[in-house]
Structure formats: structure tokens, C-alpha cells
Design a protein that fits this description.
single chain, 653 residues, alpha+beta, eight-stranded mixed beta sheet, 21 helices
Length: 653
């Protein structure tokens, strides 16, 4: 367990403060843009040297932070003092670490009992804080599982994401939603378990469509006995636990017995169930004898980038694969990238007993020990040298190599588009961050502003932002909405990053609209004193035809582009993505507003009291017109609450 933080000369940040800073960090400016001055480097080394007097010779975790309080790096050490002293020998450090030392103004430390505990804490903090100089795994999607409940006489089979509890069995993880959906459909055909919610099940009076298409045996209306249904459940669990061949052999035996008894209808049902299971296994792509529960992790590095492919095997079946592209310094060696990836990957998900890797990660034994400690049982981290397991890893490695090739090809195409964009708009340099703005509303109601972000690697969806229009703007005043959105966005940027060092400032601002929207944006920037941002508005051409867009820039007459220019197509995609994001956010807000009423505005009136009022009076208007005595007659509404409701609608009474 981690001990209390060591008291240092500089103010400490407690663990609750760390949680407040756990948002993903904005991408840092490229290394080519940041120069290390000798003065800053010496100053950073001196700051680090000041901590050495009080550091213990024990395991722990250290955090390096800049002047703004942003965490630059999280590291772990078997011996904190010996590890941190290395940062004071600045001439021996690579350029990446020299930049980090130059930015460091304070450090914080947590001691642990063992190096394994330090590794576990380090991986947790990296995922929470997303420090700029660490290898970062941006993995914000949970894996889907197949869930079979245990708290019902007739268990339910469904797809599941999120937290798991003890009231069900979970099988997975599956690499994608399509993989688990395909498997669930096949299991319903093979074992005919219900997928309806318990509330729906309890109110059924006749079989639903699932029964008609032979995907459920209709336990809700007694078409199957409890014993028969439990047999179906046991078979499904056995199949998902790796006993697929036994189940298929049993189905084949029963099909043959039914056919010999001339019960051809029953035989046909078993034939269809066998086909469903065969279809599931046909989608497994690759399976290896002797591999029951295992993850296969293969990594390939090229061009300063890394692709890591993870294949999931559970119960002897292949549950799919997923490619990851961790963010890291381009000079970082592959073993270090792989070690950091594995530590972070299993920080929030259970590890199988066997992990096959394409090469040994840095600190392999320590990582295996840490994963075993977290899981409560032994976990092996193995690089196979020969045999079927080696062929399995090689197959994953080919996938990693091909995925990275596609990624680098896309990045090269993106780089050419950004270069063309800079040339078309006369920018001083190729933009690293482009922000695109659009608004959405219906006659001024539920107005939303949307911002999307694009960069050298494509769309940066974790940087998207929505703005609920809050000011008293006349319905349909698009210029006023744009002024509010840009005012809020860049007022915050000036407050949080006035020196523009954190990578949250755009190199180009694109606005969906014409000269009016451009003028509104320039007014905002003029009020804020921002004079060096490139701003362009893009308007649809005559008859709103794609390919005839007009572009508006300060000090330049409106212009168009060749309809076949790839840069124009790129800009259209950016504009359409901003429009899609704004429209989708607006629809979500409008849908939420439809379910609201004036009763929701009354303090202390929750869902149950709101339901009682609407059932009693029939509508919100009826509640508004009700007298005090009528309100008191509603079940669950006492005199105090009734007076509060009455006063809300009759403030002058």
C-alpha cells in the first residue's frame, strides 16, 4: 500500500486534487516547436536536486509538474533517491527528457512497500492524469461481454458493457460490439434463451416475436418447463466455457435419435441449432489447440509510431482483436512502449492467466508479478519461441504490421492535405490543430454550439466540445450564438493557457457560414485582444451545392476552389462533421426537453411525486390550476409540499 506523501518544501497536491486533474491532457506541441534553453534546463535540474536531501532509498512513485500545475511525467522507482538523481545529470539525458526537466518546477512523491505496488500505482496515475511525456494508452471504450443472469428462475442472455456484479456470469471480453452481437444471435438460435428485461418478462401474456422466429422457448407463458430451460442455460454456459465440441456432439446425438424415432420436426430443430453453433465457430478466424484463456499481444514499430494488436481467446474461442496506437516519443524503444502499454491496458480490466507477447517487454517479471497481485492468481507473460503459440503470435504480428502501414499511409495523406490547406489559406505553417464551429437550433429553441477538432492524425474526438447557448439571444440570431460560443471558448483559453504552451490553442479556426459569421468571430477576437489567429468561414455556394463553396477571410475577397481539389473535399468533410456533431447534440437536448414539464422546476418534487401529481390531475396544466386543498388530497403530498407547489404557481397569492 502507498504511504502518505513525503512533505516537501513546495506545496503538496493531495490525492483528491489529483482526481480533479484526471481529464485527458491536450496534445502537446510537437517537439520541433519546443526548444530547450540552457537556463531552463539548469533551473529544472536545480529544482529536482532540491528534493534529493529528503528522498528515501525506498520504492515509490514520483510526479514531475510544470509551472501551471500540469503533470508532465509519472514514474516509478525501486529506489526513489537513486532514480530521481539521474534527472540532475542533464547532459546524459535524451532530448525528450531534457525538455521535461526544463519544464519541471515541482515534484511530488508517494512511497510504497514494494516495487510491484509502485508499478500498479504508476499505471493507475498515468491513465488518470495522461502526462505529456509518458507512453499514453487512450483507451476510453469498455469491452462488451455476454451476460447470463443467475438471480431469476429463467435466466436472461444479453450483451453487457460496464460494471459487473455477482448476480450473473460474464463471458468475454469481445473485441467489438459486432463480434458480441453476432455471437449472441447465434447463441439465441442454438439455445433459445430469453433476452427480454425482467419487467417485460413479468407482464407478457402471450409469446413475443422471438418465440415465433425460434430464438426463445417462451418461458414467460409456460411453453417450456423450468427443468428444460435450466438445461438450455447449462448448455449455453458450457459452450461459452470452451466445451463447444461436447455440446455439438450432444446436439448431433439428439438429432440422430429424433430422426430414428421419425420425429423429423425435433430433428430439424437440432439441425438448426448445430448450424448456429457452426456459424459462430466459422467467424473465429483462427484458433489454436491448447490455448483456452489467453490474450495475444503483438507490437510493430515503424516511422516513430507503434501499433499493438491484442487478440482475445476465451474458452478456446477467438473473441476478436483490436489495434491500439499508443502515444509516445518517437525515439522510445519498443520494449519500453510495450511494457507501459501492458501495465495500463490491464489497469481497469481482468487479465487472463496467459499473455503471449511478440517480444519481451521492459521489466517483464515485474509486470507479471504486478498483474498476478491484482488478479489474485498467477499470470504468465510469455514470448513463445516455437510451435502453435509462436504461429499465433506471428499471425497477430502480421496484423500489427499491416495496421500500422495503413495508419502511416493515412497520416501521410493527412499531412499532404494539411499542407494544401496551409497553401490555400496562406498560413505561415502547416496547422497542427484545426477547430471547426457550427450552431444548431429550431427557431432559437434548445440552441447548441458545437466545436470539433482535427489534426495530423485526423479527427480528435476527445477534444470535441458542446456549448449550451445561455445568453438571452433573439430566436434565430446565428451571429449572436457564434459570438457567445467563441467568446466562451477563447476567454477560457486565455485564462487556462495564456502562454499557449499546452496545445489547446488552434492554428486555424473554421466557421460554418459566410461574411456575417466571420465578422461576428472577428468582433469576439478583437474584444479579447487576440490578433494572430487564422480565421476562415466556409459558406455553401449557389443552390447550396457541394463543390461551389465560398471562403471568406479577413482582408481578402471571397474565393472558391476547384471542385476536384482534394483540399476542398477535406474542408467539406470537416464542415459536415461539425454539422453532424451540432445537430446530434441539439437533438439529444431537444429529446430530453420533451420529457420535462413545469413540475420539474419545483424544488423537492422528484419522480415519484411528479408521477402522483400527473396521475391525479391528468396534466401539468391541471396541477398548475389546482387549489391548495386539491393538492393535499394527492397521495404522498403533505400540507407543506402542497403549499410549496401552490406558491410556485401563485407567487403573488
Amino acid at each position: 500500500m502507498a504511504s502518505d506523501q513525503i512533505v516537501q518544501p513546495t506545496p503538496d497536491i493531495t490525492e483528491p486534487d489529483i482526481a480533479d486533474k484526471a481529464e485527458p491532457a491536450a496534445p502537446a506541441a510537437p517537439a520541433s516547436r519546443r526548444r530547450v534553453s540552457a537556463g531552463n534546463l539548469a533551473q529544472g535540474a536545480e529544482v529536482i536536486r532540491g528534493y534529493l536531501r529528503t528522498l528515501p532509498n525506498s520504492p515509490g512513485v514520483y510526479r514531475m509538474m510544470n509551472e501551471a500545475g500540469d503533470v508532465l511525467y509519472v514514474g516509478k522507482a525501486k529506489n526513489l533517491k537513486k532514480r530521481v538523481v539521474n534527472y540532475t545529470h542533464v547532459m546524459k539525458l535524451p532530448n525528450r527528457l531534457q525538455r521535461m526537466v526544463a519544464e519541471t518546477t515541482t515534484m511530488e512523491f508517494v512511497t510504497t512497500h514494494t516495487e510491484v505496488e509502485a508499478l500498479l500505482l504508476e499505471s493507475n496515475l498515468i491513465k488518470r492524469l495522461m502526462p505529456r511525456y509518458n507512453v499514453l494508452l487512450r483507451d476510453d471504450k469498455s469491452f462488451p461481454y455476454i451476460k447470463i443472469t443467475r438471480d431469476h428462475d429463467y435466466p436472461q442472455l444479453t450483451k453487457h458493457r460496464g460494471a459487473r456484479d455477482k448476480s450473473a456470469d460474464y463471458f468475454g471480453p469481445f473485441a467489438s460490439g459486432s463480434a458480441v452481437n453476432r455471437t449472441v444471435t447465434a447463441l439465441q438460435r442454438a439455445f433459445q434463451l430469453r433476452n427480454c428485461a425482467d419487467t417485460v418478462y413479468a407482464t407478457r401474456t402471450r409469446p413475443c416475436l422471438q418465440y415465433q422466429i425460434k430464438r426463445c422457448t417462451a418461458p414467460c407463458v409456460g411453453r417450456v418447463t423450468p427443468e428444460e430451460y435450466q438445461s438450455q442455460v447449462a448448455q449455453a454456459r458450457a459452450f461459452l466455457s470452451g466445451k463447444s465440441r461436447d455440446i455439438q456432439a450432444e446436439f448431433a446425438r439428439q438429432m440422430q435419435a429424433a430422426a430414428e424415432a421419425l420425429d423429423f420436426e425435433t430433428a430439424a430443430r437440432y439441425r438448426d441449432r448445430i448450424r448456429a453453433l457452426t456459424a459462430t465457430q466459422a467467424h473465429q478466424d483462427i484458433n489454436v489447440e491448447g490455448v483456452e484463456d489467453a490474450d495475444v499481444i503483438a507490437c510493430h514499430q515503424d516511422g516513430g509510431s507503434t501499433c499493438i494488436q491484442v487478440f482475445f481467446f476465451r474458452g478456446g474461442s477467438n473473441y476478436g482483436n483490436r489495434a491500439y496506437f499508443p502515444s509516445h516519443d518517437r525515439n522510445l524503444e519498443l520494449p519500453e512502449v510495450l511494457g507501459s502499454f501492458i501495465s495500463q491496458f490491464y489497469d481497469n480490466k481482468p487479465a487472463p492467466r496467459l499473455i503471449l507477447v511478440s517480444q519481451e517487454p521492459a521489466e517483464q517479471e515485474l509486470i507479471a508479478e504486478a498483474l498476478s497481485l491484482r488478479a489474485g492468481h498467477r499470470i504468465e507473460l510469455v514470448e513463445p519461441k516455437r510451435g502453435d503459440k509462436k504461429r499465433l503470435v506471428d499471425h497477430a504480428l502480421v496484423n500489427a504490421r499491416e495496421a500500422l502501414g495503413r495508419r502511416l499511409s493515412e497520416s501521410a495523406s493527412q499531412a499532404r492535405l494539411l499542407e494544401g490547406l496551409a497553401e490555400a489559406f496562406g498560413l505561415d505553417s502547416v496547422p497542427e490543430r484545426i477547430e471547426v464551429y457550427d450552431n444548431s437550433h429550431i427557431q432559437g429553441t434548445n440552441a447548441i454550439g458545437g466545436m470539433i477538432v482535427a489534426g495530423p492524425d485526423g479527427l480528435m474526438k476527445n477534444s470535441y466540445r458542446k456549448f449550451n447557448i445561455r445568453s438571452d439571444i433573439a430566436p434565430g440570431d446565428d451571429y449572436g450564438m457564434m459570438r457567445e460560443v467563441l467568446g466562451r471558448r477563447f476567454s477560457r483559453a486565455l485564462k487556462e493557457d495564456p502562454e499557449r504552451e499546452r496545445g489547446i490553442w488552434p492554428d486555424l479556426v473554421l466557421i460554418d457560414g459566410g461574411q456575417g459569421q466571420l465578422s461576428a468571430a472577428l468582433e469576439v477576437f478583437d474584444e479579447l485582444g487576440i490578433t494572430d489567429l487564422a480565421v476562415v468561414s466556409i459558406a455553401k455556394g449557389p443552390d447550396r451545392n457541394a463543390g461551389r463553396e465560398r471562403f471568406f477571410m479577413p482582408g481578402r475577397p471571397p474565393f472558391g476552389m476547384d471542385p476536384k481539389d482534394p483540399v476542398l473535399y477535406f474542408l467539406q468533410r470537416l464542415r459536415d462533421e461539425a454539422h453532424r456533431f451540432a445537430i446530434g447534440t441539439h437533438r439529444a437536448r431537444r429529446t430530453k426537453a420533451i420529457g420535462q414539464s413545469v413540475i420539474d422546476e419545483i424544488p423537492g418534487i422528484g419522480p415519484s411525486r411528479k408521477k402522483a401529481l400527473l396521475h391525479h390531475f391528468g396534466s401539468a396544466r391541471g396541477v398548475e390550476r389546482a387549489g391548495l386543498a386539491d393538492l393535499e388530497a394527492v397521495e404522498g403530498i403533505n400540507r407543506t409540499v402542497a403549499k410549496k407547489i401552490y406558491d410556485h404557481f401563485h407567487p403573488d397569492g
